[in-house]
Amino acid sequence: MSGTCVALVSGGIDSPVAVARMLMNGWKIFPLHASQEPVTGPAAEEKTIALLRHLLEMEGPLGDAARKNLSRELIVVPVAEKLALFTEKWNHTEYFIHMKRLFNSIATIRGEQVDATHVLTGENLGQVSSQTLGNLGGVEIVTPLLPLRPLLAFDKVTIMTMARKLGTLKISEGPEVCDALGPNKPTTVANKEWLERSEDRVGGLQALASSCFTQLRIVNL
Predict the structure, then answer these.
(1) By the 8 A CB rule, do 37 and 151 touch?
(2) What are phi and psi of 196, to 5 degrees?
(3) Which domain CATH number covers 155?
(4) What residues pair up with 34 in beta bridges, in sequence order?
(5) For position 128, what pLDDT does the model report?
């Protein structure tokens, strides 16, 4: 199976491995990075760019696949201002679920531009709070794009081994910054009604995603 997808690429260890696996399966991939600057520094975006360029510069079948099917345009969308809306007492424990729902809603907008059918992520089951089975379900329902999760059943050690073989591990290593605004005790079981009510209180998820997307930057790879 192959097709067209929007890839959520963070600069961490998992997402470039997911991109590489789907490139080898013939998928056309349009990368998107949700930037949390100025809450965080520029490292995540810099690593994302370096990782994608690494794939494009590789020798052999993977490099050939990347040069054929990986878009040279990285869409960078600022999200920090909107994510800060989910740090109130009444919505903070669901912060990471709201974050992923926002990312997927932004991916939907990009997907409409490039006729994508799927959204690609590096998620693997149970690694962090937003990746419990219930929370994954709470995230994927916000987008008509079908989920591509090629790392879903792998543990972190296996994914790191894959990254090492790809040559992406050293680029990805470093502190994770996606939890800069996150709670100490995040929710592990999503409640659809509560999530939607919380998002409506801060303007509505689709409005937030559209606002973020209007501020996009394009980085040429």
Answers:
(1) no
(2) -65, -40
(3) 3.40.50.620
(4) 77
(5) 64
CB 41 within 8 A of CB 88: no
* Residues in CB range of 104: below 8 A, 6 or more apart: 8, 119, 139, 140, 142, 143, 145
Number of domains in the chain: 1
Q: Which domain holds residue 152?
A: 4-220
The answer on pLDDT for 5 being more than 70 is yes
- The arithmetic mean of pLDDT across residues 5-9, rounded, is 98
Q: If you write DSSP's letter for every residue of 156-207 in order, what string do you get?
A: HHHHHHHHHHHT-HHHH-S---TTTT--SS--SS--HHHHHHHHHHTT-HHH
The pLDDT confidence band at residue 3, using thresholds 50, 70 and 90, is very high
Q: What is the strand order of the sheet 73-78 is part of?
A: 146-148, 118-120, 4-8, 28-35, 73-78, 217-220
Q: What is the mean pLDDT of residues 25-42?
A: 95
Strand 118-120 and strand 73-78: the pairing is unpaired
Q: What is the pTM of this model?
A: 0.94
Q: What string of H, E and C letters represents the secondary structure of 21-84?
A: HHHCCCCEEEEEEEECCCCCCCHHHHHHHHHHHHHHHCCHHHHHHHHHHECCEEEEEECHHHHH
Enter the DSSP assignment of 218: E
End-to-end C-alpha distance for the chain, whole angstroms: 26
Please tell me the distance from the alpha carbon of residue 171 to that of residue 167, in angstroms, as a whole number: 8
